[in-house]
Specification:
The chain is α/β, with parallel strands linked by helices. Helices cover 34% and strands 16% of the residues. It has a domain at 79-105 and 208-375: 3-Layer(aba) Sandwich (Rossmann fold), CATH 3.40.50. Mean pLDDT is 93; it is low at 381-386.
Length: 386
């Protein structure tokens, strides 16, 4: 079958249902709702013979032209049947999506490839972003595969050492004496002052759609569809993408049902877990942390007020939930992954597995249920968190 080289699709508000032409520079509806790209799933196909993920899943990406797709060494990572580790946890069908195999050892390379491709297609050559390290590193890596783009990266001082990339003339790092949330606010102010695009983080649909590809690959790689999916979260954009991808695959007949989604946080910075535990649909003031600390630096977001409602809707809607894990659980899970499966991960990825271990020990996962864990990142240059 000849791949579609051009497609039309719309951006649709998940709150009010308004539909408009898709634009990366327009991340939110006038009502304040989240805008999702919506494709013609009756015509969508997965191009099984395509080696590059963005070509294989082009029909499910926010790109109009196939030639706009960008590959930066992202994707095609293994989905490991972890028999030894599964036996340790009492799970016969434990699968690990090993995203440490991406170019910068993090799933955020998928995000960067999609965002940069979308921005290039729409004529954006300079933009602003913020990160605790992974996203910025992936953007900086990806820029070498583009034509004359420039990015201003904002980060808190505590996260400077997590920005690990070779200097590129198109990359400018701005360091702020604040946490992740404060750095993002500074980035937005800078973008407004310089009349540049602030790419939007969670609310940039190209980020969510790029991260979705890790899950589409995993759904295709597993011999049986997952019953439960685990990922560590800060804003939750990866889980949002995973859920949207599952809905699309369900509509296309490639999944028989939606899996349960479980979002995992470290207890030293767990505003979503705490809010859910209290039965709250919103992040309340006492859930918010300023300058949070923890082993898993990649998920140190102390104020997820804008994104938590989406995560709670996904977890409650699929029968999943939230898990909170402590330092000992993360350290142990990280050791198990290295010893049993030879996979060396960051503490955020270890947190996801610790959540699996916790629920399995409580009998909340059946031994025969297929379980998918997204190991979102690995060690880099001796650092435990990637």
């Amino acid at each position: 079958m000849t791949p579609t080289t051009h497609k039309d699709f719309r951006a649709v508000c998940v709150r009010c249902g308004a539909s408009r032409p898709y634009a990366a520079v327009d991340p939110r509806c006038s009502c304040g709702g989240l805008l999702d790209p919506v494709y013609d799933l009756t015509a969508a196909r997965v191009r099984e013979d395509e080696g590059v993920p963005s070509a294989r899943y082009f029909d499910l990406l926010p790109l109009h032209r196939a030639e706009s797709a960008l590959h930066i060494g992202d994707g095609n990572t293994p989905c490991v049947h972890a028999r030894t580790l599964g036996s340790r946890l009492g799970l016969d069908h434990l699968y690990l999506k090993d995203e440490t195999r991406n170019a910068t050892r993090t799933t955020k390379d998928r995000m960067a490839a999609c965002v940069l491709a979308v921005l290039q297609e729409q004529g954006v050559s300079e933009f602003v972003a913020s990160s605790t390290g992974n996203s910025s590193t992936s953007f900086a890596w990806g820029l070498r595969f583009t034509d004359a783009m420039k990015v201003h990266l904002f980060t808190g001082r505590d996260f400077v050492d997590r920005h690990q990339y070779t200097h590129h003339p198109g990359v400018e790092l701005h360091v702020v004496d604040d946490d992740f949330v404060g750095a993002a606010s500074a980035g937005r102010a800078f973008a407004a002052d310089q009349e540049l695009l602030f790419e939007g983080g969670f609310f940039n649909s190209a980020r969510r759609e790029g991260l979705k590809l890790a899950y589409l690959e995993a759904y295709d790689q597993m011999p049986s569809p997952p019953a439960v999916v685990f990922q560590a979260v800060s804003s939750g954009m990866g889980v949002y993408g995973a859920h949207k991808g599952a809905q699309e695959y369900l509509a296309m007949g490639r999944l028989p049902a939606l899996p349960r989604f479980v979002c995992v946080q470290q207890l030293s910075c767990a505003p979503m877990w705490q809010a859910d535990r209290e039965g709250s649909d919103r992040i309340q003031p006492h859930h918010i942390l300023r300058r949070p600390q923890g082993l898993a630096k990649a998920i140190l977001r102390g104020d997820p007020s804008n994104t938590y409602p989406f995560m709670r809707a996904i977890t409650t809607g699929t029968g999943g939930g939230f898990a909170g894990v402590d330092d000992d659980e993360m350290v142990r899970a990280r050791r198990w992954l290295a010893e049993d499966e030879g996979i060396h991960v960051c503490f955020a990825a270890a947190a996801a597995l610790a959540g699996v271990a916790q629920l399995a020990a409580r009998g909340e996962i059946g031994r025969d249920e297929p379980v998918l864990v997204n190991l979102t990142g690995g060690e880099r240059d001796g650092q435990a968190d990637g």
